[in-house]
Amino acid sequence: MMPWLGEEEARAAADAVLSGWVAQGPRVAAFERAFAERVGAEHGIAVSSCTAALHLALVALGLGPGDEVVVPSLSFIATANAVRYVGARPVFADVEGATGNLTTATVDAVRTPRTKAVLVVHQGGVPADVDALRAACADWDVPLVEDAACAIGSTVGGKSVGHGALIAAWSFHPRKVITTGEGGMVTTDDARWAERLRRLREHGMNASAAQRHASSKPILESYLEVGYNYRMTDIQAAVGLVQLGKLDEMVARRRALAARYEALLHNVPGLTPVRDPAHGQGNFQSYWVLPAEDFPVSRDGLLAALAAAGISARRGIMASHLEPAYEGHPSAPLPVTERISRDSLILPLFHTMTEAQQDRVVAVLREQARR
């Protein structure tokens, strides 16, 4: 993954620096409004990372010790860690093989009377079937939190991921489709949650620094609860506004590259590429392939062959329950998660990728398939 950044982002960042307002301020507010409008949410709350966004989402739900939250193990470890931050217990559920996402069946298999929330991940930008999950969670009387870290520009039923979500968390890390260097966002339609989240990201203050500076009268702030330092800077937001304006072009390019990969890989036996699910379209933030179990070369062998050809690929999505941080953590059998994590690899896909570069990647895979 290589971010698509240029002169426009550089000028926007420079303008923020020259304005003298570099901390959270007017550009952050503008980015929040633009992002929320793009995903169809009433409120956007910019924060320092998607991990911070997930943490605040779970704080807003009032989760704590004794509560369980169903999460996929097939996700970056921050998903499970955020549950631990509030003192709750992540319960790992399996995923379906085609999308790498939770389903109502995999959630129901690990749900208990202590389940107080479900945290679904739109893995690699592949949209989860949130219509089904929202309906099931309503029946179970538990909230559904959406980890949309990778999913800006992905859609479900023709609408943006995050549209109609109770609460969703987003990432602007450089490996995501749009970036602010680091940074994240919480989106929600709940005005009360939004107000509280704005306080929590800024030490629990009842008046932000921007509000105090904008006032013609002195404001003596109060600290209403224990909060966090999860702010985004105006420099980051300035870059984010430019990136958001490029989103449609970025997604269109990524989808075109993904379609070309699929066409080229059609005649490479034993490789199953990630595809759009029936209920939506992905942004192809990651393009992964899953070799058949009898493929002549292991996943690590494929990575080595690609590296020898000067091609940087990555292992597939991690399985959090297998990491030392979660050693001994109770878990149901997770055969699909373990298979995808063990055997899949993520192929290079970035905005400026050329056809010749794609051809080189596929040539190595084709050669390895013939071994």
From TrEMBL:
A Gene Ontology molecular function term of the record: transaminase activity
Active-site residues, Swiss-Prot/TrEMBL: 176 (proton acceptor)
InterPro entries, per database record: DegT/StrS_aminotransferase, PyrdxlP-dep_Trfase, PyrdxlP-dep_Trfase_major, PyrdxlP-dep_Trfase_small
Cofactor: pyridoxal 5'-phosphate
Keyword Iron attached: no
Modified residue annotations for N6-(pyridoxal phosphate)lysine: 176
UniProt-listed GO biological process terms: polysaccharide biosynthetic process
Family the UniProt entry places it in: Belongs to the DegT/DnrJ/EryC1 family. L-glutamine:2-deoxy-scyllo-inosose/scyllo-inosose aminotransferase subfamily.
Protein name: DegT/DnrJ/EryC1/StrS family aminotransferase
Source organism phylogeny: Bacteria, Bacillati, Actinomycetota, Actinomycetes, Kitasatosporales
